[in-house]
Amino acid sequence: MSALSIQPTYPIFTETDGQPLEDGYIWIGQVNLDPQVNPINVFWDAALTIPAGQPIRTLGGYPSRNGTPARLYVNSDYSIRVMNKNGSVVYSAPEATERYSGSVISFGAQNATGDGATTIFPVSASPASIFINGVYQNESTWSFFGGSVTFSEAPPATSSIEFLI
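User: That's the sequence. What structure does it adopt?
Assistant: Structure tokens below.
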């Protein structure tokens, strides 16, 4: 029997303090361009038939369609800007290429396992968030430089580390 990875049903967006982004804004745009000024078509369904107007609002950290958590789909690479309810930027990326079933917007994840001693972990890009055993890690506990995340303390032995890229 092969192992199955358990993934969240919907992507979640967090505030800078790690709390779910409430009443936030998500803008999706052309690669390497300002997504607020250069939006692309975003959809609520994988068939790309139900358009999502921008900005997409968040409810409890989830993209919200009529008050219900939803997934977002696009048919190309994209830029993204996530803002809180006050209009402050929480996350922005000029080029995002993550895929799920070919077209959903979600953060890519890289995983590692703590050994109680290692503090430096190589990653493909600067993480948007890091979780150890499912617990959000405040940005004051880690740093990113030169393709690696350095923790101020080594994650515990056998701990599951998830880097959301």
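Residues 99-104 have pLDDT under 50 and may be disordered.
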